Amino acid sequence: MEKVGVIGLGIMGEPMARNLAKAGFKLSLWSRTPHKAQKLVDEGAELCMDAPSLARSVDTLVIMVSAPEDLLEVVDKISTTPLHNKTIINVSTVSPEAVITAEKKINQAGGEFLDAPVSGSKGPAIQGSLVFLVGGDKKTVANCRGVLEAMGSKIVHCGDMGSGSRMKLAINLLLGSFMQGLAETILFSEKMGLSTDDLLEVATSGAMAAPMVKLKGEAVAAGDFSAHFPLRHLHKDMQLVLKEAELCNSPLPAGSKISEILNGAMELGLGDKDICALYSALKK
Fold first, then answer.
1. Which of 168, 216, 236, 273 is catalytic?
2. How many Å apart are CA 132 and CA 155, to the nearest integer?
3. Tell me: the pLDDT tens digits for 250-262?
4. Same domain (yes/no): 81, 175
5. Which domain holds residue 149?
6. Per the structure, how many domains does the chain have?
7. pLDDT digits (tens, 9 = 90+) for 5-44
8. Ramachandran angles phi, psi of 163, nearest 5°
9. 139 is catalytic
10. Are residues 209 and 146 part of one domain?
11. Residue 43 maps to which CATH number?
């Protein structure tokens, strides 16, 4: 039985780990906050005392953390132990620079590294329908296919190391633009005296129909801002987008403005709400 480890047991990491166990992998865990692992331990997973001991005990290690510095902190911990015949998969949304640095450190310790952030939030993580945006060696991708398929429904090989993270930043730029547009549209229609239910019926019946319109639109209409994708993560991602855009000389006038709006939403204390709380930021 292949042994798989997971570091990062938040909104995304916990259901992803659970799906690995359901797929028949022997699951081991490490968390900076051990209580987050308790449910999975109760379900049969092993909790390791530290990150290096977890890395030593598994064949493949999946990392789902919040930011580039968190990834590099984990990599620094696990690269203190030999990683021969082991593969480390980063599924977090971080900068391309961070995954390239992480790969070098993992390779120096004898291991393989894969850049594989996900498209999808809490629901797809629970359902096992995430989309993996992968950067790295084709052979490593092929070797990791079983692990990735246990957590997702599609794998897109975007190119060499860093390409998966670049694709994720592009997708999250689109997500931020979409969410800002939807929030403005709902508020605009309300100010004109229109029914939000009627607006969503129109928006989901024509060429602009998309699952996110229905999902986030209905959440806004219900006043349900419980986090599926926390706003603070989109705030972080937009900062990464702007940094990468500067490096590749890509103008992002709308992206820059959305980043400013997210800064304001954070100042309003909306960071732990869902990204659809951009609507709440507009109303205040």
1. 168
2. 5
3. 999 999 999 999 9
4. no
5. 3-159
6. 2
7. 999 999 999 999 999 999 999 999 999 999 999 999 999 9
8. -70, -35
9. no
10. no
11. 3.40.50.720
